[in-house]
Structure formats: structure tokens, C-alpha cells
Design brief:
alpha+beta; 2 strands
Length: 102
Amino acid sequence: MERRTVNVRVGGQSYRVVSSAPDEELERLAALVDAKLGELIPNGKGAPPQAMVLVAMAFAHDLETERARRRGLERKSRDMLRRVLVRVENALDSDEGEEARG
């Protein structure tokens, strides 16, 4: 995919981003950052660099929270799958034992 320059607006400022990502994706991400910034800064005020750092930290926190949630779900899924496999193996062993007796 070719790299090109896309203009996005965050916190009342325009930024030129060089990327191979689709324009719509960059605009969507910029809108997310802008919305999070809007939670921290009153409307109509410029965003100081510290606010951008706070937004980055908030998104990093969200990411870490989701990763921990995903790891927990993966662990639960593996445990459940193990239990199901044990039940299937036990059922198959039980059927084989009945066939040998019959």
C-alpha cells in the first residue's frame, strides 16, 4: 500500500500524517482522540501538549484493561475446552468398555 499524507484535526489543530492506512481509518482514530481530548479540555480552548499526553495515557490504560480482559477470557476458554475434552474422552472410553462387554 502506498504512503500518502492525510490531514486530520485534533484538539482544534490540524496535523499532517504520513501513512498507508486508509483516510477514513485515520479520520476515525483522530475523532476518537479528539473526543477523549474534549473530555479533558473545555470546548473552544486549545489543547496543551500535556492534554495530549493524558489522552495517550488514557488510551494506554484502556488498552491494558482490554488485554487483561482478553487474557482472562482466553484462560477461561482453555479451561472450559479442557473440561469438555475430558468429558468427551471419558464418554468415548465408557462406550468402548460397553462394546467390549457386549
